[in-house]
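Example 454.
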Amino acid sequence: MFQQDFAWGAATASYQIEGGKTQGGRGLTVWDEFCERPGIIRDGSSGAVACDHYNRYKEDVAIMKEIGFRAYRFSLCWSRILPEGTGKVNQEGIDFYNGLIDELLANGIEPYVTLFHWDYPLALFRQGGWLNPKSSDWFAAYTKVVVDAFSDRVSHWMTLNEPQCFIGMGHGTGEHAPGLKLSNQEVLLAGHNALLAHGKAVQVIREHAKKAPQVGYAPVGVCSHPAVETPANIEAARKRMFSMENDSTWNSVWWMDPVLLGRYPEDGLRIYGDAVPAYTQADMDLISQPIDFFGTNIYNSCPIVADENGDPAFIDLGLGCPHTAIEWPITPEALYWGPRFLYERYHKPILITENGISCLDYVMSDGKVHDPMRIDFTARYLEQLRRATDDGIEVAGYFHWSLMDNFEWAQGYHERFGLVHVDYNTQKRTLKDSAYWMKSVIASNGADLSMNLR
Ligand code: GCO
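Predicted structure in complex with D-gluconic acid:
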């Protein structure tokens, strides 16, 4: 069973839903610039308008209320609050988030705030961005403005969303903004500065929050699970989940161990070698400022068996394996083994800060959006998460990605992850069947996951 105060929520991010690109004094972000590059976004779109949440947030909060969400995870657009990233505060930006927070609380919905979900201030990027040694101080100063403004009502905070992506894809492969293809040295330096920023933000929240804060972090959970649940396969899957096979940034441990254990993982230091930036124990002490919960985004995991030496060996998911519209595998075991392995390693309550599925949704001839795949997917993943709680893993909540269809980064609007369909031409919201199903799940606190698939 899920705990009585389980945080049933939906998740979004500022650049993906707000729009209002030039409204209310907002400063430009690296994603605004990135989207203007020809051919970079699949459908040539941007988040300039997105779901127009900046102007429609009251309607969206009413939808959250209708579904019965107890919590809502959203991110703040740093440059809506500090248009230049530092310096002058934009009161209209503060006013917008005050309005959203007040609307949530008036509807009994707990705000869970992500400080940074990739929309980095363009003005700071032009000063070096995460490569600038001052970047963690910039982030700390931004956090102070936010905590002063909102911490009388907000008590749940996440610092960074998915450094694997905004560092790895934004600074290494160039698939995401700011579209850099840097050396490993520079990528890891940017990553180290981002981790320092996390630590400084935790310090600022602890020192200045008006309401007792619960502070967390939201890296991707790059997960593994035993293809067959034998002791050897379980150990092999655990070993793989917390190891690094190569020098890419797509892993769990390089981003989790510093924050939770105060050190970089040994095999990462070996694999990255000279690319590892110079750092001090003081850095690691700062980065590993205690946090209260371990937020993580889990969508799928790799099936593993133990080879003859007990080492992890991948099992192919097989031809035509179940997958989502964005071509991610469907592996519900991820929400048992990911939380279990993470809890056993880091001993922090687990918060699923993202989990969801992209489907080929559209408004059908009956005016409804039937999305049986999303219902089946979510039921199976929640069943596994419930199993984890039954096995004693402390799971504090589940945030479905996403509340509504939105701007899916380099894929533009091609992918639909929402429980609520958005017609981008009219901004009409339509609750999908899964939204009504989610309502019944929340009402039973996750006890009833039955599906009357249509
Ligand atoms: C992520 C991001 C979200 C994505 C979602 C679907 O995890 O990549 O946090 O912004 O939109 O995960 O890809």
